[in-house]
Amino acid sequence: MTKTSLPQAVALSRRSFLVTVGGTAVTVAFASLSSVALGAATAQAATGDFTPNVWVTIASDGIVSIISPASEMGQGVMTSIPLLIAEDMDADWDMVRIVQAPADAEKYGNPNFGGAQLTAGSDTTRGYYLPLRLVGAQTRKILLAIAADRLNLPVGELTTEPSRVVHLPSGRSLGYGEIAATGELPDVLPQVSEADLKPIDQCRYIGRMDVNRIDVPSKVNGTAKFGIDVELPDMLYGAVLRSPVPGEAPESIDDAAARAVKGVIHVVPLRNGVGIIGESYDAARRAKEVLNVTWTNSSSVRRYNSTRLVEAYRDVGRDLAQAGVISHELGADAADAIAGAARVIAADYLSDHVHHVTMEPMNATALVSNDSIEVWAPTQGPGTARDLAARIGGTTPDKVKVHTTLLGGGFGRRAEQDFVIEAVMLANAVQGRPVKVIWSREDDVRHGKYRPLAAQHLQVGLDASGNIVGWHHRLVADSILARISKDRFQRAGGQDSLVTDGAIHNYSVPAHLVQFVRQDNGQDVGSWRAVGNGYTKFAIECVIDEVAAAKGVDPVAFRLELLSEQPRARKVIEAVAAMAEWDSPRDGRALGIAYSDAFEAHCAEVAEVSLDRESGEIRVHNVWCAIDPGVAIQPLNIEAQVAGAIVHGASHALYEQLNIVDGEVQESNLDTYRVMRMSEMPQIHVRIMPTPENRPAGIGEAGLPPVGPAIANAVARLTGGVRLRHYPFLPERVKAALSS
């Protein structure tokens, strides 16, 4: 049996049992829980006898309540993760109710994040898949054991149907609710291994097309509660004027005009800004607008100019004398192999800052009462939110309660906790009354944690036949990891796997070297959807096309050649080429292909584009995608997630750009931070090609990395080899490439 590190639940009673999974333990409880039937998309724990430090609770009326440990931000985990338990415990899905987990990493942390309670990196399903299926399997075995005792029958003669233990020869049966009402634990708890899990072809729910997401109905009818929807008795509202340049603080504050605004309760000086508390959001917002603040002038970020720096980063990448930290080294010495090559292809790929622009701007609500704190937040990291709230409020984590609401988009931005910290700080100033802090869209755009500015220098050595003999990939960027965890960054020897994610590809090359050259210019950078894969696959897939062109071979055939030992990769590439009719001529259009192995998903995409040479505008007409997700837990949701990621990927490749001049962000709202419009949407065609013998891949981000390079490669085929090497492909950049 594969050992799985799953957090241990505590507080066992006579009516609960300990599920042992790979040497660790999880609590499952019996209780009267009809009050949990609050509707599928509830984000609040139930009242009554429910104890939220358990995974499963079975009520006497047959309702099965299952904890959802991850944050629901539109990716469907509030359905897919509880579904895993329901599948192997053979619960009737119509009788299942979902309860959002409290903030408690010890109990509900993700094994793939070292037990941290974090929803990010397309790692939720990958982390919880095996542990929670085993929880379901052992729950079923214990129900069988209890029923065997009740019916006075050998347990081997019993089986289960949805939420019922059945003795087929006699027709006798017990519902799970009946077992819960009077159940006694068996003296010896049955153990489980992966052999006890249902084969995928026998699953009732996994892989089914008709299992709908439980959060969608409330989002359609408007009853879904996001963080921004939180309403509490006696609630106040907060707004924060933040320093225009990161690292600065208020030097002097003239708040006379702000205090004169009707409804203003309090003005709170903060380390990096000034908070306003009002009886309404409008009062707080208007008061913020009339604050007169003089800021310090000492931050190093005041020298930050993104246009200048990306060029400087490119020069660093080209300068091989500037050593980088080795992130990956495979095979022979890449530098020697390239030095002895018959031909060397060298290329630089640049990517600008991009912002998350989630549909729901940042917000959080906090209530501080003496040494206890309660937080309502759309956060990707409730455990971290709890710990930081405790630190800010001067109390201990056990006295902090975090309610994770639905998230109106995350993409990595809500893994940060700055919006939670602000809410706790303002609530601390008016103890006893909850304060909801809402960021305006301008606040959100100008004070984010942007994807790093990055330059990539690639050198690929070819022999006389055009075969790759060496591959050297240098990434130049600021570090995400050094900011969020200096200790981890130091323990990693200066490597940043977040920034370099995706640079290790599975193409067959005899010598492969990846280096990270860190820059430190003071600007906070963070994870953005697909993290490093969003730009590393851009560079890799464009260079693969360039090598294919140099060799005079078809780019699809060339990829298949380099992936001769990767059958899953070959399968999706062959499938997407067939979907797009790769060899068919296009009038005024061209096709480009790209492949990604990000998040353990095999994903190939073809983009069909046209180009207005006079304006430099690219139009994407179609994107075809073939994806192998391993086990396809929810096929319809996989299709939706991939389609959404394709849109996001095309948007950031064509339009999205955040400029910083002298430390100040120049964009402010969606009129200046350009995203793809509805009228610019391509037709999207997705084919899911599951391989049930493999565990599920990460899906929420997997469709994004190949889009940009597929577009760039299509432009190259359309123009006879013009290469686009700078995200985004702005019209002026396209025209410059055409004229170079």
Description:
By secondary structure, this protein is of the alpha+beta class. The protein has three domains: 16-216, Aldehyde Oxidoreductase, domain 4 (2-Layer Sandwich); 228-298 and 362-438, 2-Layer Sandwich (Aldehyde Oxidoreductase, domain 4); 323-353 and 451-739, Aldehyde oxidase/xanthine dehydrogenase, molybdopterin binding domain (Aldehyde Oxidoreductase, domain 4, 2-Layer Sandwich), CATH 3.30.365. The chain is built from 21 helices and 29 strands. The radius of gyration is 27 Å and the shape is globular. The termini are far apart.
CATH fold assignment of the largest domain: Aldehyde Oxidoreductase, domain 4
| Content of β-strand | 15-25%
**Oligomer description:** single chain
Biggest sheet overview? 7 strands, mixed
Give a quick set of tags describing it.
Aldehyde Oxidoreductase, domain 4, OxRdtase_Mopterin-bd_su_IorB, 29% helix, alpha+beta, oxidoreductase, disordered N terminus, 740 residues, AldOxase/xan_DH_MoCoBD2, globular, seven-stranded mixed beta sheet, signal
Concise structural overview:
By secondary structure, the chain is an alpha+beta fold.
Write the layout of secondary structure elements.
Layout: E1 16-21, E2 24-30, E3 56-58, E4 64-68, H1 77-89, E5 96-100, H2 105-108, H3 124-151, E6 159-161, E7 164-167, E8 172-175, H4 176-182, H5 216-221, E9 236-242, E10 250-254, H6 256-259, E11 264-270, E12 273-278, H7 281-289, E13 292-295, H8 306-318, E14 325-331, H9 334-339, E15 343-351, E16 363-369, E17 372-377, H10 382-393, E18 400-404, H11 418-429, E19 435-438, H12 441-446, E20 454-462, E21 468-478, H13 481-484, H14 486-491, H15 497-500, E22 511-519, H16 533-551, H17 555-562, H18 567-579, E23 590-596, E24 602-612, E25 617-628, H19 635-654, E26 660-661, E27 664-665, E28 683-688, H20 707-719, E29 726-727, H21 731-739
Parallel strand pairs: 2-3, 4-5, 9-19, 15-29, 17-18, 21-22, 25-28
Antiparallel strand pairs: 1-2, 3-4, 6-7, 7-8, 9-12, 10-13, 11-12, 14-22, 15-20, 16-17, 16-19, 20-21, 23-24, 24-25, 26-27
